[in-house]
Amino acid sequence: MAVERTLSIIKPDAVGDNHIGAIIARFEDAGLKIAALKMIQLTQKQAEGFYAEHKERPFFASLVEFMVSGPVCVQVLEGENAIALNRELMGATNPDDAAPGTIRADFATAVSANAVHGSDSPEAAKREVAYFFSAEEVHSR
Ligand code: UDP
Hints:
This protein is α+β, with helices and mostly antiparallel strands. Helix content is 39%, strand content 20%. Keywords: ATP-binding, Cytoplasm, Kinase, Magnesium, Metal-binding, Nucleotide metabolism, Nucleotide-binding, Phosphoprotein, Transferase.
């Protein structure tokens, strides 16, 4: 299996609920390395650009509104099979469907406030990492 990088976002609900450390511990405990990390307040434009693929979906406006409602933590996770492993740790999009012990089962409150984002393919990971971090800001360890 290849070493991959993937973009993870701890969303405003989980940041506001004080779950940053607990969520990052899930990544580290699973063997993923934090290769980059920062807390930022997304602008409307940044949030719209990040979720551009969803712009025709009925939930787009509320998703953007939620993502700018408070600071987020963005991090690059690195490790074997990092993209799929992160998706597994996150659990299903709707926390009601998320397997027990996943981040969304434990920390999300609704599909619209579901604690974390994670890239869902190698192409998305590449685009999303570059959306938030320059090459110099990502550290292989
Ligand atoms: N979302 C929502 N309502 C829906 C479906 C999705 O608010 O009915 C939001 C949710 O926050 C989700 C994001 O849109 O995380 C992106 O949706 P996607 O299907 O890509 O899910 P993910 O990859 O985040 O699991």
